């Protein structure tokens, strides 16, 4: 073979080698032939922009995860929250999502929520639990509504249809002896519900979110609010029937500037982060570590960021942990058993 032909053959072989290496890479988090993970584009499913998930999720993406080794890009997107987030993570649209711990359990076990009944979601894993999400029943201060019983015959927003908030609203109403037939149901998310209360097209709205919730604060800027307490007997029934609910008291000071005059007795679930269980152990380890080491950014993004602690990171964990998260918690001496 001539030197010239040998030179040309060498170039062709080099190009082929590069092409094959490119085919073996994993830009979306899969493993290459050496078991090594390529850089990942992380999309985080959050919630509506008037809730708590969105500001925390965008802060995680922009301030923390975008700097993590193995991540090429990170962004948080607005969504329909828990149920939609799990469905779209299962479809590969998100690599991480905020969800309620009860909805994560229902999805993993294929029960209770109609979207998951008999159809368990198999590719979700837990990363960490974050903070309590309070069930808040909001009315206008001048509405005259003082109890759950007063909601009968009224126009009530119960959250987006099929959402975690709607599941909570239905369970609370049923525990109080109230069915959807007893109220005029409106399937509206946080922001639209606040607008409905403001313009008088709604009488009350259920919101499941960490307090203080921006939708309630925004409403209170123009219209004084009253957040109803859940009676003790209803709280007792909920906590006994559903293991994910815990009794919670929201200080009156939380919405003092919006017109609230007394503390609010209610129940809460836990917000949590789930990940696609196909993400590599190293990547999820790095993400978990970065979140807890950079949580000042979360505290700056929303008051609930202060509730995200290593010590409470597994409280109410309702599905199997991702091995990468487990590795981090084990290193930190947090029991994962």
Automatic annotation (TrEMBL):
Pfam family, one: NMT1_3
UniProt-listed NCBIfam families: TRAP_TAXI
Signal peptide (residue range): 1-26
CDD domains: PBP2_TtGluBP (cd13567)
Keywords, sorted A to Z: Signal
Gene3D superfamilies (UniProt xref): Periplasmic binding protein-like II
Name of the protein described by the UniProt record: TRAP transporter TAXI family solute receptor
Coiled-coil regions, chain positions: none
InterPro entries per record: TRAP_TAXI
Origin organism lineage: Bacteria, Bacillati, Bacillota, Bacilli, Bacillales
């Amino acid at each position: 073979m001539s030197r010239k032909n040998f030179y040309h053959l060498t170039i062709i072989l080099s190009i082929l080698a590069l092409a094959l290496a490119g085919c073996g890479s994993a830009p979306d988090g899969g493993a290459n032939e050496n078991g090594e993970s390529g850089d990942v584009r992380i999309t985080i499913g959050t919630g509506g922009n008037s809730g708590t998930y969105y500001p925390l999720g965008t802060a995680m993406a922009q301030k923390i995860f975008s700097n993590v080794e193995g991540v090429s890009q990170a962004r948080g997107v607005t969504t329909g929250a828990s149920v939609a987030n799990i469905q779209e993570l299962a479809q590969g649209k998100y690599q991480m999502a905020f969800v309620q711990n009860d909805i994560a359990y229902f999805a993993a076990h294929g029960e209770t929520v109609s979207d998951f009944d008999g159809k368990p979601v198999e590719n979700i894993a837990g990363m960490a639990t974050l903070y309590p999400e309070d069930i808040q029943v909001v009315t206008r201060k001048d509405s005259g509504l003082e109890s759950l019983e007063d909601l009968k015959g009224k126009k009530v927003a119960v959250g987006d249809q099929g959402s975690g908030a709607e599941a909570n609203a239905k369970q609370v109403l049923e525990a109080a002896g109230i069915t959807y037939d007893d109220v005029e149901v409106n399937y509206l998310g946080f922001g639209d519900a606040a607008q409905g209360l403001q313009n008088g097209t709604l009488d009350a709205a259920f919101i499941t979110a960490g307090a203080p919730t921006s939708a309630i604060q925004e409403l209170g800027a123009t219209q004084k609010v009253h957040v109803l307490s859940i009676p003790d007997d209803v709280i007792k029934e909920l906590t006994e029937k559903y293991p994910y609910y815990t009794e919670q008291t929201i200080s009156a000071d939380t919405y003092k500037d919006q017109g609230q005059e007394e503390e609010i007795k209610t129940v809460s679930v836990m917000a949590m982060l789930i990940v696609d269980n196909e993400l590599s152990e190293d990547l999820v380890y790095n993400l978990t570590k970065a979140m807890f080491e950079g949580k000042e950014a979360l505290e700056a993004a929303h008051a609930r960021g202060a509730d995200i602690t290593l010590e409470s990171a597994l409280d109410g964990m309702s599905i199997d942990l991702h091995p990468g998260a487990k590795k981090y918690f084990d290193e930190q001496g947090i029991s994962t058993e």
